[in-house]
Request: fold
Amino acid sequence: MSKSYDVELINIQKRFGSNIVVDSFNLQIERGECISFLGPSGCGKTTTLNMIAGFLEPDQGDLLIKGKRMNGVPSNKRELGMVFQTYSLFPHMTVFENVAYGLKLRKVAKPEIRERVGKVLELVRLPHMADRYPKQLSGGQRQRIAIARALVTEPSLLLLDEPLSNLDAKLREELRDEMKRLQQEIGVTTIFVTHDQEEALYMSNRIVVLDHGKVEQIGTPWDIYNRPASEFVHTFIGKSNRIEGTVGQLSGHDLGLTTDGGLSLKAVQRGLPLTTGEKVSIYVRPEKISIHVNVEMAEKGNRVKGVVKLVSFLGAYTECEVDIGQTTMVVRVESIEHDAQLAPGAPVWLDWSPDDVFVFPRKESLA
Ligand code: ATP
Reply:
């Protein structure tokens, strides 16, 4: 017998008019997983979530929840809990009534409703708010109540559509921690839609990166960050420096590159088919580059001379912009209060390992 998944998308496609907004979407989600749909605005995240929720029907493909085909099954028969970007609480009902709503619809007995609402309010750490109205709550509290309301019916699948995006940065982080704790405690299979890469890395067991309705990569946060399947994935997640160049020597695992500015760089082959003479974009992340005043210290394999342009203290780290002639590189170093040797105008050496270089065929628009 084939393995059973909590959710399966098989070749799902959705068109609006002639516009294909979700194309050949295949995904299998195991019980208890938290999966993020990540991608820029308009890439099809919400459309896919809406098909899983039953608000939209796919034009092609099959959608299975707990092994049952859901195409055509109304939303209220899919055993879902949902939380959206905007707080969707009923303003004329108290917190208790809001959370109890789904249970009342299901004709659950009153004493059980009281017990289950009480429990779920404990879970979101707002047990003392039961008698308040939504307008008497802060944005973060409202969103926690929305989560409580989604969880109280013990759904088999929790769908979260940008649930944190209306909150300020501090609250966002707080609620993000809270949601991760809750998700792990309850173990409910969860799909989390976000355009915020850090949120996706933080929350998920696996991330689905989408671009223009197509799945670019499905992988663990580590895989997505360290083994990007495409240039889009590499540049969408985290910061990276780009240098334009050409493939020189290819020998086994080793890749020799020449930048358009005439520097020789080393990289390693990562399975992408590249040919000698091919124009490429070369990437290295700011945190993988070391900065030195003495050239002898630069011994990781790629050594480039530059001049410091800008130094910005950012709390946990300091960012230096270094002009290397062809381009400006951003380098992330340990926090420093003041270092005369790293002041604007200072000559420095940058140094990074061939293992930390990502090479992608240059896009036609840049070639
Ligand atoms: P965002 O982060 O901005 O919400 P998204 O990744 O969730 O973006 P979707 O809302 O799924 O993107 O939209 C995908 C594409 O489908 C967009 O180009 C959008 O304009 C289009 N689209 C969405 N809903 C409709 C509709 N009802 N009719 C026509 N086009 C639509």
